[in-house]
């Protein structure tokens, strides 16, 4: 009976409109690949170049807000009943949070990002490669990105576990300000923007990193494969894995997240201990951390007004947009699993586990290959400049490790685990979006979950077939993030208003007792 009730509560407008648009866009990318790529590039220039400061201001503002929430009176609010305890241990909670928020992109960029910066004119403006190429990966993947996740996670956790609201949508988080308009056209537009942003984020993630897995398989077999076809096969296999996990509920997601973390930290430990660059990794890591913290405000507000390198337009603005579109699913999931934790514990714990694990990945994997470059044991910069093939370059890096074949297998397994863990949580949140209401403890119908699991790979497949450049793949996130950033600001204003009212309510209750 419960399943029938849930089927009747499906919000077909929010479910079918995004599905139709995504299938339409996928068709355009497939049939008119050159023209669609050109249009995307032009639209990206307008949002990322002309209006780029918008993204930078919001990013820094959200980070400052996260600190305010953690250390103000709002930090004492429990995401649940006042005396409730966390459902998950810190490691299980942190594992699910970390893996749902980053996907396999972290491995792709941990290996390759310093090389892309080393070839950028902005690094030459600042100084040397060894001084700055390792700083920007830490900056672009740490405090501000996780601030986006964590401030929204506490807003959604408050909405779900304190206010007990049963509409698991972006618009519901805006109810304190929207009021009766939440279920009108204002709320509908917000929810449509959220679903489109969700699909844009998943398209960017799948399109950027999955070709690395195809290249790794080619490296293992010692033959050159059709990268596009193999990548699509990998997308299908990954879809099967995360669909299987999701259909087994939160227990399946938790088990997969723990497995992913063991594989991930096992890979980092092997590179750190046996790669022969341990001292270089540590010393450059400490130096890069110091530079990042020392120049944090400067890096957060650099706009390159004369466009001598276009560095913030190509990188910082793209990254802030990327985190914004991922903010549709990841914070909702983090909010769900943070029941029983205080706002302070959620934010600071997220920074410790999420940011800490991210920094370790970039310091170990990035500085390993940089150490080989600086000691002239390899020339990855020349490889990239001559071929433009980041995927082949990463495989070259992995093949310098002892027992390279095993390292490639380990890398593949870790990437599949990352993707599966990220996308089963995303498919779960997207499935919840398909319902007008979903009571606490209820799960979406299995067919709705299956539909979203499949839909999440449609646009990435189209982008791969259209052979979109890295720039155009990034553009999908930049375009989708522009309106969703306004919604994020609206959600945070709503949370502050509602949390203030809640503190006043509980204060009056304590006084009357």
TrEMBL record:
Spell out where the chain crosses the membrane: 12-32, 52-71, 91-111, 138-160, 189-208, 228-247, 259-282, 317-335, 347-368, 407-435, 447-466, 478-496
One GO molecular-function entry: transmembrane transporter activity
| Alphabetically ordered keywords of this record | Cell membrane, Membrane, Transmembrane, Transmembrane helix, Transport
Q: Residues of the signal sequence?
A: none
Bilayer topology reads:
Multi-pass membrane protein
Q: Gene Ontology terms, cellular component aspect? A: plasma membrane
Subcellular location, in the record's words? Cell membrane
The record ties this protein, via InterPro entries, to:
BCCT_transptr
State the similarity comment. Belongs to the BCCT transporter (TC 2.A.15) family.
Name used for this protein in its record: Betaine/carnitine transporter, BCCT family
Q: Look up and give the organism this protein is from.
A: [Clostridium] aminophilum
